[in-house]
Design brief:
This protein has 2 helices and 8 strands; from the N terminus they run βββββαβαββ. The protein is of the alpha+beta class and 126 residues long. Helix 1 crosses helix 2. The two termini are 18 Å apart.
Length: 126
């Protein structure tokens, strides 16, 4: 059985997908880019500002599902420039001060709306 998850504190889905799906004791988030959920626009700024917004969006979705970053078991990161990896990690690591999840990171040709970073996560329920 699967249950769609929705948070008004994260950007609305702009296509035929859910912000996340809860199944069993796992939550699978859709990829989030640095959209400010209020105006629904990509924020201005570089990789670090965009990473903070992505993490805020993911936090809201995870909270709506009943979990948080401490329960994330896997993250997948998409960067438009792998040279941003170190600056991305400086911000990302703030959200996982100990026992970070497994993670993959890839450079991709393009992301929606010209975003610099997209992240999706899998988390266990509390």
């Amino acid at each position: 059985m699967k249950k769609p998850i929705h948070s008004d504190k994260a950007p609305k889905a702009v296509g035929p997908y859910s912000q996340a799906i809860l199944t069993g004791n796992l939550v699978f988030t859709s990829g989030q880019v640095a959209i400010d959920p209020g105006p629904g626009k990509l924020i201005k700024g570089g990789i670090q500002e965009q990473t903070r917004q992505v993490m805020a969006n993911l936090s809201a979705v995870l909270e709506a599902a009943g979990t948080d970053f401490s329960r994330v078991v896997k993250a997948t990161v998409f960067l438009i420039d792998i040279n941003d990896f170190t600056r991305f990690n400086e911000i990302y690591s703030e959200y996982f001060p100990s026992d970070p999840p497994a993670r993959s990171a890839f450079q991709v040709a393009a992301l929606p709306l010209g975003a610099m970073v997209e992240i999706e996560m899998v988390a266990a329920l509390k």
